[in-house]
Amino acid sequence: MTTSSTHADDTAAAATASQNEERHNFQAEVSRLLDIVTRSLYSQKEVFLRELISNASDACDKLRYASLTEPGLIADDPDFRIRLSFDTETRRLTVADNGIGMSRDELVDSLGTIARSGTLSFVDQLTGDAKKDMSLIGQFGVGFYSAFMVSDTVEVITRKAGTEQGYRWVSDGKGAFSVAPVEGPVPRGTQVILNLSEGEEEFCDETRLGHIVRTYSDHIALPIVLEGTDEGEKQLNTASALWTRPKSEISEDDYKEFYHHAGHAFDDPWLTVHWRAEGMIEYTALLFLPSTPPMDLYHPERHHHVKLYVRRVFVSEQADGLIAPYLRFLKGVVDSEDLPLNVSREMLQNNPTVARIRKGVTKKILSELQRKANDDPEGYATFWSSFGAVLKEGLYDDTENRDALLSIARFRSSASDGLVTLDDYVGRMKEGQESIFYATGTDAEALKRSPHLEGFHAKGVEVLLLTDPVDEFWVPALGAYQEKTFKSVTRGGADLEKIASGKDDEDADKSSDDADENKNGEIGTVIAAFKLALKDEVKDVRVSHRLTESPVCLVADDSDMDIQLERLLKQHGQLDSVSKRILEINPKHPLITALARNAGPDGDADTMDDMAYLLLDQARIVEGDDPSDPAAFARRLSAALARGLPTN
Ligand code: ADP
Ligand code: MG
Q: Measured in angstroms, how far is the CA atom of residue 344 from the centroid of ligand 1?
């Protein structure tokens, strides 16, 4: 192979270290990342090139957008492209772009710290165990820093468009880098010069580079050219925007690589939706639903990652209003034919065309999800477990699409180990059942065992187990589904009496009803004694129809807020006090019947007080709360245990 002298090499030579060189340490996270990257035995080292080309393409997109309002920025060099060149003898590989470039401060920030929250939390997961870490890197990629997988030192020479002074950044990837102004002219944009490590000669090879570019970067809309080949300059990629190509000409791998680049994603897309809308408004959309939830999915500032293009020109990374907030996990591209090219990012916010596109995108995605739910219920269930909580935000946010959302919504339920639909639930409702019963909490398994569900289990009444915080909001907002009201099992009114029992336990029901009546007098005494003992601790004490196994439980009054919702608001500091609960007691529980026998006028009033508190605290513990006074709880428990032991 002949030695090629390129533009990049000349500039590098001109960039002799100046007096003004500054040394900086990498941010701690970057150092950790680099440490792993440089020690790595990662098998797919060639992805460094994908990362550098991706950055170069982003930089060109940014400048193209800036030049819409400031054409002078690109007047001297209007044709965007990415140039690769290499020199076999010195083992140097250069990736150069004529994009936006970086100012000195941007250089220090962008190539010395990690700004992306996803990448930061990825670094937090690094264990130091090379194998595990490498599989993580495979999933997340490390952007620019991947250059150190193959290089002893990396130089970056850059000049920001519209400025005169160029800068040179150099590092060996071992904790520090230096930055200095370059004397003399520097071309606009950025050159990344890799001084390849020994053993990485394969990246100074025309065939190899061509292959890597076609594999990973064919979707890049700019020409990627290799300089210094026998034929001179050679274009390596197709260089047309992927979404403008006919679907039949795009392979699954093309889509995948585009997803990685445009979405800054490293998993594979779970669903790819590529369509062209024509009519009132025209746009092309190529959107992806990820297979793994991004780490910042619930971050309050989390944005969607759908890039807005206008007639093939990149306009905005995260155009406000383009994507419904509850579809913020979407990644990809929307390319509008109707928006003006010089639309400012601020103008996009309330733009009617953008709003129309949002509507169209929402409808399309929801119908694709419905299709997946029908065709591949298992795959859909996995998707729903990751993203359902976000989609459910739409149930109160987007009344227009509520029905479509309800139809793709899935729920955990007491009646099944898998996920159920609301229609499944309604179809299984018992005779006399008027409400859709639900329990809210943080853990579906724990909810299934909750005392509140005992009576429902006994009567075979299904209960939805809602474990996402968002459930506290959409359920009240909806109120009902197919005229069946939603009713929490922790509310006082979740009354089971009206619901017909299954055949088997009808008789048992009758006899226990009789027993109820016989004992009503004594239970009444227990209730009176408990009320007296607990005075202000509870709102009321009453007989329960929902308990079969447990002696007691706490419920909310019909007029009060749901228990779980109150807890949530309190956690978030939006409530200072919680409302009092109703203590329900199970008249058939042996402990309660024994208490009833003791409750007469010659019963021990102190014992009764202790029992009242112990049972109240027990009900609190079952709910996952603490006893109101742990020391008193322990004292009473010890006393009760002591009473149960023989005294001589
Ligand atoms: P990411 O591309 O995900 O932001 P990288 O590690 O690949 O992360 O790059 C970090 C940042 O460095 C980029 O966001 C960008 O600001 C800057 N950068 C990298 N390469 C270039 C380039 N060729 N031109 C301009 N800026 C660049
Ligand atoms: Mg990048």
A: 23
List the one residue out of 390, 364, 410 whose CA is nearest residue 294: 390
Ligand nearest to C-alpha 167: 1
Task: Name the CATH code of domain 505-644 (choices 1.10.760.10, 1.20.120.790, 1.10.260.40, 3.30.200.20).
Answer: 1.20.120.790
Burial of residue 603 (CB within 10 Å: 0-12, 13-18, 19+) is middle
Spell out the SS3 assignment of 453-515. HHHHHHHCCCCEEECCCCHHHHHHHHCEECCEEEEECCECCCCCCCCCCCHHHHHHHHHHHHH
Which superfamily does 6-234 belong to?
Histidine kinase-like ATPase, C-terminal domain (3.30.565.10)
Give the separation between CA 270 and CA 107, rounded to whole angstroms. Answer: 35
Q: Whose CA is nearest to atom 3 of ligand 1?
A: 143
Nearest CA to ligand 1 atom 21: 55
Calculate what percentage of the chain has a pLDDT beyond 90: 54
The pLDDT tens digits of the residues spanning 110-140 come to 999 887 666 777 777 777 676 677 666 655 6
Q: Give the pLDDT confidence of 465-488 residue by residue, as tens digits.
A: 999 989 988 998 999 999 999 998
Question: Letter for the amino acid at 570?
Answer: K
Amino acid 558: pLDDT: 76
CA 330 to chain centre: 11
| Side chain identity at residue 179, one-letter code | V
165 CA from centroid of ligand 1 (Å): 19
Residue of 55, 107, 186, 317 with the most ligand 1 atoms within 8 Å of its CB, for mutation: 55
Phi, psi of 324 (to 5 degrees): -60, 135
- Per domain, the residue ranges of the chain are 6-234, 244-382, 410-498, 505-644
CATH class entry, domain 410-498: alpha beta
